[in-house]
Amino acid sequence: MRRTLFEGLTRRPLTEAPPRVGDEMLAELASQLDRTARRRLGRSLSIREVDAGSCNGCELEINALNNAFYDLERFGLRFVASPRHADVLLVTGPVTKNMREALERTYRATPDPKWVVAVGDCAVDGGMFSGSYAVTGGVSKVVPVDLHIHGCPPAPMEILKGLISLLDAQTADRP
Amino acid sequence: MPAIVDTIEGRRIEDHRPWPRLLVTQETWRKIADEIAAGRATLLGLWANAGELYVVHMAFVDQGSTTIAVVSLECPDKTFPSVGAVHPPAIRLERTVHSLYGLRPISAPDPRPWLDLGFWNVKYPLGSRAPASDVRPSYGFLPVEGESLHQIPVGPVHAGIIEPGHFRFTASGETVVRLEERLGYLHKGIETLMMGATVERATKLAARTSGDSTVAYGIAFAHAVESALQMKVPPRAQYLRALMAELERLANHFGDIGAICNDASFALMNAHCGILRELVLRAAAACFGHRLMMDRVVPGGVATDLRPDGLTLLKDALKQFRRRFPRLVELYDNTASLQDRTVSTGIVSGELAQQFGASGYVGRASGRDCDARKSPGYAPYDDLDFAVPVMTAGDVNARVWVRIREVEQSLALVEQIIERLPDGRVAIALNGGTGEGLGFAESFRGDVLVAVRVEGRRVARCHLRDPSWFQWPLLEAAIEGNIVADFPLCNKSFNCSYSGHDL
């Protein structure tokens, strides 16, 4: 263990440079963030992930955000265990009917101000699963969505871009 | 001794391949159930379909052989003799058949619904499709009696970044006396969406049954379709499939070995294993254009050939794994505080693993020598050298060690595949024929079974059976007598699929 720890001190970090955020994402967010929310939160967000019917692909890539290459916490973003501690709900999946109530209750348990980010193609409109008796067909059918991140699943860098754009939109025109 | 399927009478379905399917009587159905209950055969799956008549199917393999067969029973009065009554591993499968089709297993020990949590607005969605009443019936958890017991309901929304499911713990102080799982939250109706879908669309649906095993599902589905249509896949495609499957296995094992240690509060291991996992995914993206290699396996072959520059990255990654992984194994083995958590925690007995026919590391850590790559076996693994690690302790530690040994085997397999990769085409076209097929693939978690009926470029019916069906019930047994705080550790060491199970 000593050798592993020592190497960690001497080796250059694996962490990659933060991604540039596209204007599109900022535009989608700018209108939804009000000034007071920005002031109250500063440049840090707590995220609660909710799997509402995903195949687990999105979860794997969201989990990857915690690895040394992406190191989510350097941006002041961190995953929390309870919606009551969260500012952002990161929702995946087409929202199955069996998960609808759980998602609604999680949303209600999250204190204001809060944002919902829908991750993955099936979270946008149900994707491949739309039309089934068992899915509602997208996160926005159940709770208001502030940002969509496309991809099946979106690569960690894409998810990171979306989350950083949330932070940037907050600090963009702070008084 | 003759194979069980040779001792029974039934009408053989001609276009079912590669193993026989027989239409049998209730009496024969019961006889097979008894053979399975007596341990002379292992249950591989139990599902239904609705055409002109309702039919239930049961797949099984003779003990100690590779003789696989499917028996089918017509259910004109919407009932069939319960297999679960004599063989508990069939109980949840039968509850699912009832919830989806409305077929009733006669004298079944547990009549409660499964997967149907009362939110669908429709009853028996693959059967009568009657409108469901607005009143949601309450679900009775199994009773627990005793002094000073308390219940802890957990989920469906869990604390980590994981899939949803409900766990009902009954504890006496810190000790779990009963865990009851309630699953189905991720039910998307995949089998319904498959019916009538083009083979292309069905392939994509199969690939999204459980995202962590997307390659394995792709292979199992492709095997089933290729058997049904009697297609012969080019050797290069077989090798590329195996390359993807081993990369998927490596990524999952790296990630999970780290995550198991993390659940024992040993974050260092998780950080280092996370790096290895990321390197696999980046190599996969460089080789095949997608980090999880989704939609790369298709019936007839593979969708994309290996990118030449990808191979260089892959070889570099292999060098890193060869250098770094042994040190992490040493770290795991030499950290007493970590071993204290994993050794003798969450034991699954060899008898239970055998009875449930548990595959993957759950079965192999409890003494079951099983691996779909060896038995029934499929190309190109018959040309490759690898061993199937088996242990007997059945605890969290054994499941970690089986995975460690499997990583070593997979590394060797990837090296062999790169060395022997044949030239040639990577796919052949679908032939538009009609037929039924059964296909297997060994995912990192265990054997995936796919049964399909193809009719001229469309899927008439497809059933996908995740290995988790025979692992989830064992988790309930493994946690008994352990402390509540060890549940995440036990659960992660199983890492059953929620999505693959809920469909």
Describe this structure in words.
The complex is a heterodimer of chains A (175) and B (503). In chain A, 38% of the residues lie in helices and 13% in strands. Chain A has a five-stranded parallel β-sheet with strand order 2-1-3-4-5, sandwiched between helices. Chain A starts with a helix and ends with a helix. With 503 residues, chain B is α+β, with helices and mostly antiparallel strands. Chain B folds into two domains: 128 residues, NADH:ubiquinone oxidoreductase Nqo5 subunit (Beta Polymerase, domain 2, 2-Layer Sandwich), CATH 3.30.460; 295 residues, Cytochrome-c3 Hydrogenase, chain B (Orthogonal Bundle). The two termini of chain B are 38 Å apart. At the A-B interface, helix 1, strand 1, helix 4 and helix 5 of A face helix 4, helix 5, helix 8 and helix 9 of B.
What does the secondary structure layout of this molecule look like, with pairings?
The complex is a heterodimer of chains A (175) and B (503).
Chain A: H1 2-10, H2 23-30, H3 35-41, E1 45-51, H4 57-64, E2 77-79, E3 88-92, H5 97-109, E4 115-119, H6 121-125, E5 147-149, H7 156-171
Parallel strand pairs in A: 1-2, 1-3, 3-4, 4-5
Chain B: H1 4-7, E1 11-12, E2 16-17, E3 21-23, H2 26-37, E4 41-50, E5 54-62, E6 68-74, E7 79-81, H3 91-101, E8 104-106, E9 122-123, E10 130-131, E11 149-154, E12 166-172, E13 175-182, H4 190-194, H5 199-207, H6 214-228, H7 235-263, H8 267-288, E14 297-298, E15 301-302, H9 308-334, H10 336-342, H11 350-356, H12 360-364, H13 373-377, H14 396-420, E16 434-442, E17 447-455, E18 458-465, H15 472-479, H16 487-494, H17 499-502
Parallel strand pairs in B: 2-16, 3-6, 7-8
Antiparallel strand pairs in B: 1-3, 4-5, 5-6, 9-10, 11-12, 12-13, 14-15, 16-17, 17-18
